[in-house]
């Protein structure tokens, strides 16, 4: 019996990209449903009533939400080409770093991105500290788990794409080859991987989108 | 692997630490509990969790594992001859992880905000949000438990542990603010679940008693405030 797999996503969501990559790595066929988050479909709201967010993976009519939860679900459902390490300690480290990436690193880079010029120096300190922590994890490794792409690479995949877009908008270099040689090298390997490189959202469209987002944030935060 | 010594760095008033204690008890794992003072962290804690510098940390042999839900999953994956904590079906596992993530990202932080609230108005607003979250969790409980005593069915599971850890603070707040958060009309199933959970062997000597907890948290807040002056 052919199972029906659908992925609700937006064209730009870095969280949804994780699932696109995972399904590609596992060779799973699925239908994509693109959402406009300013006008959410009844299906999205039905499948994710708690948050109304993407991505949502729906398999045989049953939804799974939250990208890191979906990644583990995909890995446990289709066991070939495993994404997570088998060893419980290594697995716990992978989960720890994925949470660090979302809770600390992404938030600190975002805070820098939406900071007014006068606040940028302080915001940059946190972002750079967190990047340094990730840099340490990549010493002596091609990808986070070794020679092949796995869970943590997908979890951190947004760094390989989104960060350079934010840097261009801010006219600020964060991840340079001198300060972050291992991270820079990882980015190149990740971008070059065949499974990954065909999936990037269009760069010019991303720049426009995030430029507008930044302008809105800065305008909202400016005292009148 | 399972015979290496086990240490838990923590403090009894933390929901996150309580979760790990439930899991260790459920699996009957011998361990040493090392009490940490959050305001004066030990060398061992700082060495074991240099990134977050937080409790709980489980040290298994010489390997540290951090973050409560991470630790609970680790325990489940290493000690496989005890009762299973996570469900076996991938979709049920995903459902448990989803709601545990909801609790940690959206709901549990509200409880601490209630403790920190200085004004009656902000406290009232927060309590309303706590109640709204409990209504969602009530529906989740009905769906996951399928008429049985726990989120995990017949026995305590991952989501029981995730929410069970919060019961200390929840009951503490009910006492402090003289309110009912779990109640017979809006969250009858969770009310029953809380009682069953707290009287279970794995939980009964772990969930802190409300008065003792509130006194301890008040002292902590006073010390933390003095330390920042």
TrEMBL record, chain A:
<comment type="similarity">
    <text>Belongs to the GST superfamily. HSP26 family.</text>
</comment>
<dbReference type="InterPro" id="IPR004046">
    <property type="entry name" value="GST_C"/>
</dbReference>
<dbReference type="InterPro" id="IPR036282">
    <property type="entry name" value="Glutathione-S-Trfase_C_sf"/>
</dbReference>
<dbReference type="InterPro" id="IPR045074">
    <property type="entry name" value="GST_C_Tau"/>
</dbReference>
<dbReference type="GO" id="GO:0006749">
    <property type="term" value="P:glutathione metabolic process"/>
</dbReference>
<dbReference type="GO" id="GO:0005737">
    <property type="term" value="C:cytoplasm"/>
</dbReference>
<protein>
    <recommendedName>
        <fullName>Probable glutathione S-transferase</fullName>
        <ecNumber>2.5.1.18</ecNumber>
    </recommendedName>
</protein>
<dbReference type="InterPro" id="IPR036249">
    <property type="entry name" value="Thioredoxin-like_sf"/>
</dbReference>
<dbReference type="InterPro" id="IPR010987">
    <property type="entry name" value="Glutathione-S-Trfase_C-like"/>
</dbReference>
<feature type="domain" description="GST C-terminal">
    <location>
        <begin position="87"/>
        <end position="210"/>
    </location>
</feature>
<dbReference type="InterPro" id="IPR040079">
    <property type="entry name" value="Glutathione_S-Trfase"/>
</dbReference>
<keyword id="KW-0808">Transferase</keyword>
<feature type="domain" description="GST N-terminal">
    <location>
        <begin position="3"/>
        <end position="82"/>
    </location>
</feature>
<dbReference type="InterPro" id="IPR004045">
    <property type="entry name" value="Glutathione_S-Trfase_N"/>
</dbReference>
<dbReference type="Pfam" id="PF02798">
    <property type="entry name" value="GST_N"/>
</dbReference>
<dbReference type="InterPro" id="IPR045073">
    <property type="entry name" value="Omega/Tau-like"/>
</dbReference>
<dbReference type="Pfam" id="PF00043">
    <property type="entry name" value="GST_C"/>
</dbReference>
<dbReference type="GO" id="GO:0004364">
    <property type="term" value="F:glutathione transferase activity"/>
</dbReference>
UniProtKB/TrEMBL annotation, chain B:
<dbReference type="GO" id="GO:0005737">
    <property type="term" value="C:cytoplasm"/>
</dbReference>
<feature type="domain" description="GST N-terminal">
    <location>
        <begin position="4"/>
        <end position="83"/>
    </location>
</feature>
<dbReference type="InterPro" id="IPR036249">
    <property type="entry name" value="Thioredoxin-like_sf"/>
</dbReference>
<dbReference type="GO" id="GO:0006749">
    <property type="term" value="P:glutathione metabolic process"/>
</dbReference>
<dbReference type="InterPro" id="IPR040079">
    <property type="entry name" value="Glutathione_S-Trfase"/>
</dbReference>
<dbReference type="InterPro" id="IPR045074">
    <property type="entry name" value="GST_C_Tau"/>
</dbReference>
<dbReference type="InterPro" id="IPR010987">
    <property type="entry name" value="Glutathione-S-Trfase_C-like"/>
</dbReference>
<dbReference type="InterPro" id="IPR036282">
    <property type="entry name" value="Glutathione-S-Trfase_C_sf"/>
</dbReference>
<dbReference type="Pfam" id="PF02798">
    <property type="entry name" value="GST_N"/>
</dbReference>
<dbReference type="InterPro" id="IPR004046">
    <property type="entry name" value="GST_C"/>
</dbReference>
<keyword id="KW-0808">Transferase</keyword>
<dbReference type="InterPro" id="IPR004045">
    <property type="entry name" value="Glutathione_S-Trfase_N"/>
</dbReference>
<dbReference type="GO" id="GO:0004364">
    <property type="term" value="F:glutathione transferase activity"/>
</dbReference>
<dbReference type="Pfam" id="PF00043">
    <property type="entry name" value="GST_C"/>
</dbReference>
<dbReference type="InterPro" id="IPR045073">
    <property type="entry name" value="Omega/Tau-like"/>
</dbReference>
<comment type="similarity">
    <text>Belongs to the GST superfamily. Tau family.</text>
</comment>
<feature type="domain" description="GST C-terminal">
    <location>
        <begin position="89"/>
        <end position="220"/>
    </location>
</feature>
<dbReference type="GO" id="GO:0009407">
    <property type="term" value="P:toxin catabolic process"/>
</dbReference>
<keyword id="KW-0216">Detoxification</keyword>
<protein>
    <recommendedName>
        <fullName>glutathione transferase</fullName>
        <ecNumber>2.5.1.18</ecNumber>
    </recommendedName>
</protein>
